[in-house]
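2.7 Reproducibility. Because tokenized structures are sensitive to small changes in the input, we list the exact sequence used for Putative thioredoxin, including any N-terminal residues retained from the expression construct. No trimming or masking was applied before prediction.
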Amino acid sequence: MDVITDPNRPNPAAELIKDGDARSFMQDVVQASREVPVLVDFWATWCGPCKTLTPALEKVVKAAQGRVRLVKIDIDQNRGLVQQLSQMGLPLQSVPTVVAFWQGQIADLFQGALPESELKKFIETLLKQAGGQMPTAELLAEAKQAVEQGDHQTALEIYAAVAQQEPENAEALAGLARALMALGEEEQALAVVENAPEKIRNHAEIAGVRSALELAAEGREARARLAEFEQRLAADPDDHAARIELAVALNAMDQRAEAAQALLEAIKRDRAWNEEAARKQLLKFFEAWGPMDPATVKARRGLSTLLFR
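Resulting structure tokens (single pass, no recycling of outputs):
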């Protein structure tokens, strides 16, 4: 299993991607799959989709850095092998067909040309079966751990490396932006969000950072007037505008539970005030904090209680 998970293991390209035939099939596929998962790409020179799929497969396999290998088999040059495998139940009547082997057995397969994102998911699922994971997943987990330990500079470097390798990785770009925010570089964080590829610009991770940046800007102004909001609420507990501004200030001070509670109190007092402004502000908090943040989880339960009581 160490062979799968050790990112430092040398992996010459010749080991990762090979052309196969009947003579090498047992060694390069069946026996090799007892160490690492092996993908077998059944293709043909006349197959249009194969011309798209094979390069994408090679790219994803190389990115896996030795955790998975690829063997390419031309069905026209290996009719005997194809016939033998078909008799074993493999659906090789059409190409491209990609079959995954693990521990000498067929683990999974797909037919047709999949986009790169789907190929990554296929390989990630295969690696989970084998007890491993893609290098990107390991790096993102390492970055998250650095954030939890307050080491935002290390997290920044890891997220930046992943984003450079995978420009459309929303989690990496969002993590990079949040690390920049934590280091006081909000302008750079905003630039990361604004320059995100069109494909992921509206991704939940990116939207969350955008909300966090907006809240940070609003919070700086609100913090300066914190005493004012508290005085207004002391004089009039139904001053909903002051309570919402107070929540924004508390959030800027990283007092998330208190910020959420202030908004829940405003909703409890008058849910419809100013077109449900308190509820909308709370949802903006949720987006900025992330769906699994403890403050989000707790406040969402409180909101549900108020809305469906």
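The chain is about 60% helix and 10% strand.
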